Amino acid sequence: MKLLFIGILCFSFVTLSAQVQEEVYVETHYDTDNDGKKDRVFVRVVRPSDTEDLATIYRVSPYNLGGNDVKFHNTKVKELPQSKLASESEKIDLEQSPALPLVNMQTKIESTKFQYARVYADSIGSGRSTGCPTVGDEVESIAAGYVIDWLNGRATAYDKNNQPIEANWSNGNVGMIGVSYNGTLPIGVASTGIEGLKAIIPVAAISNWYNYYRANGLVVGPGGYIGEDADVLGYYIVRKSKACEQKLPKLFSTIGREHGDYSEFWQKRNYLVNSDKIKAATFIIHGQSDWNVRQKHASDLWNALDGKVPLKMYLHDGGHTMPHSNATSQKVSKWFDRFLYNDNNGIEKEKRVQVEMKSGVFSKEIVKQNNWPSEKTQKKKFYLGNKTLQKQALDQGTVKILDAGKSSSLRMFLQNLSKHDGARAIFLTDKLSGKKLISGSAKLQLSLSVLNKDAANISVALFEYKGSSANMITMGWADPQNARSLKKGEYLVPGKRYNISFELEPKQAYLKSGSQLGLIITATDSNHTLVPNAGTELEVSLGQESFLEVNIN
Fold first, then answer.
1. Which of 178, 381, 389, 463 shows the smallest number of beta carbons within 10 Å?
2. Which residues are catalytic?
3. Which CATH architecture has domain 378-552?
């Protein structure tokens, strides 16, 4: 879809005397459109004409022919849909939105040693492939994997005349790369355990689709596109087919937008469940400023694969994109050379994690470390006190927050921190002695009550404060209805106290000497959550049961 931006990869290799370009259709065992014919995946191959035993760099995408006009879900509601007070229209309403322009992201993959075949495919049910899209589940992954099977002689492909055609030039070693949805598909394919997939480079990629459209039980949207959901994406990428258009409503009937719970629909789209099947060497690339596909996807994939496969991660300072630098291009090339051609180029001897960080107003540095979070940090706990974050739980009492609705956002609440605002609660540490490093996922536990409703948004931000300036570090969101279970929310009893615990989005940042670490708690975040009318009252208890845990040196 247009919201998970299009990623086009440009490959540069050693000079070739001539190239062969061919188009084939790889047959799968699926018939997702129920037309009595096995679905076929369209594939375009570009390879040198005079070389055999080629390794392949493979990109599969649902975007190759663009997309359809779609409707977005309405995000402005009187009551949150998980409330008893919400009307049926607030649970299912869609509003018309024009298709957004496609954004091309290019990166070069340069190799001075080896030649590669390049393979581009249309994801099942999109573009020139047949069948219907299934958006993130195992069917989509296995269908894309049939191309790897064909490159290894285990599947059949046909030319435009319906004649079988073999990949007799392939040595069977395949690497996958892509940005956004195109980077998500390599994770999905790898999670099937397919033979022949030797390396993947997921860039700005999803590792668990629930965490793309939901956050700790709360319905959220990609940064900038809060009305989007899995159904919107499906309607965007689906090829022109009456059969698919009729099938998609049933497929998306269980996304649970009316409650945000983790259901079977999302379980089928959680690649981390099958991470033990991943055998491909994995090089994760993600932007620390990416609020479309949030950094949790990279962090969770790292944690799932750490110690199991060759693993590397580069966290750049940009957003939802592939960094355009020669250094990145060279590392990508070396990763593929190492695992597709067994080139002993030393890529594995480098530090496993590299993080691009701001070291000054106009300067950046690459911090190299072996672990995530950084091995230089350790977990420390700060209790919520009276406008303070304390190392000991000294203060008791409560703080009240009044949801400001559509005029509420975390980024707006970082302004004018000295001004009293009943829509936010602000907590600050003492001034820090020396420069500090914060790394990984901060965890927040809150003891809270919703005083006048049975549902509420919880939105929080972690920031650095010095003088009158506040800089965002990270954010997080949660649904207190899911305090006991992510799989089943419960209507809140007004005034009853609940303990809810959740992680903020992982980041790594420097804190200046003399600055303070700060926490903002509010209800609605109009940049990410659904937006109910103002007026929901929250009460957060201070002391022993409300605290923040961070990895800091």
1. 381
2. 180, 290, 320
3. Sandwich (2.60)
